[in-house]
Design brief:
By secondary structure, this protein is of the alpha/beta class. The chain has ten helices and six strands, in the order H-H-E-H-E-H-H-H-E-E-H-E-H-H-E-H.
């Protein structure tokens, strides 16, 4: 991992919450105001008395949720050793080649990963495409194991996938759209001392008057176009660190402007 790259930081010495917690929280959407991007699809599961099953994750998946290669996405059970079936069955290649996402039961990390696929399908498919190409270029024939080392691009892709935040910039007004599923997980477990990897997108001021669904659709489309280019990762770091408390202050400022426009 490159030391200068921002990532989801965790101060282990001060961290008193467990790294995993299987207890289901039906009101997970209330963990933070920053959870608003997953609100439309998260509400489907917010009143469940127990963890969603794989069948339910597949049932409620939007039809637009497909891989870069056009496969309809399917959440399947994570089991066994990762490499036993060959390289094309590893996590990222399996999504790209078959549309199957290995998912663990009763796991916040994987549950939020599914919700981000629901919410930002084009960006998730783009990140997976770039991961697959990087894997393919560095793998040794025949495909049996992952490459021995990770590329700089793969580090960037993983960092954003796990801990990213899309920042809509409206002529200086900034609205954070939390993306990284690891950030959602850590905040659900009670941790807020987190530094996200921020990716900024310029938007017209009229963006704030659109519905949340249309805002996300726009960011998903524009973000996927930029993130699909290798050049994005080859010229320095494409992201910069953004603390949770700063993101919350951005969100509060945007709410004030929206209220002013509404009156």
């Amino acid at each position: 991992m490159h030391p200068e790259i921002p990532r989801v930081e965790k101060k282990r010495a001060q961290n008193k919450v467990p790294t995993t917690n299987r207890r289901w929280k039906a009101q997970f959407l209330s963990c933070s105001e920053l959870f608003f991007p997953i609100m439309p699809y998260g509400q489907i599961f917010s009143n469940h008395s127990n963890w969603p099953t794989l069948e339910q994750l597949n049932l409620f998946k939007p039809q637009k949720t497909k891989t870069w290669t056009g496969f309809e996405l399917k959440f399947i059970l994570q089991k066994g050793k990762r490499c036993i079936e060959g390289f094309n069955s590893l996590y990222e290649p399996r999504i790209f080649l078959q549309g199957e996402i290995r998912t663990r039961y009763e796991n916040w990390h994987d549950f939020y990963n599914a919700l981000i696929w629901y919410t930002f399908p084009k960006i998730k498919a783009t990140l997976n495409m770039r991961q697959f190409l990087a894997f393919d270029e560095n793998a040794e024939f025949p495909w049996k194991n992952p490459p021995k080392s990770r590329t700089r691009e793969q580090d960037f892709l993983t960092i954003f996938d796990e801990g990213g935040c899309l920042l809509a910039n409206l002529n200086g007004l900034k609205i954070p759209f939390l993306f990284g599923h690891a950030v959602y997980e850590r905040m659900t477990l009670g941790e807020n001392d987190i530094s996200m990897s921020c990716f900024e997108l310029d938007c017209d001021i009229s963006f704030i008057n659109n519905s949340l669904i249309n805002q996300i659709k726009y960011l998903d489309e524009i973000g996927s176009q930029i993130l699909s280019s290798r050049d994005t990762y080859s010229k320095g770091c494409p992201f910069y660190p953004l603390k949770i408390e700063v993101a919350l202050s951005y969100l509060e400022n945007s709410k004030k402007l929206f209220n002013n426009l509404s009156t």
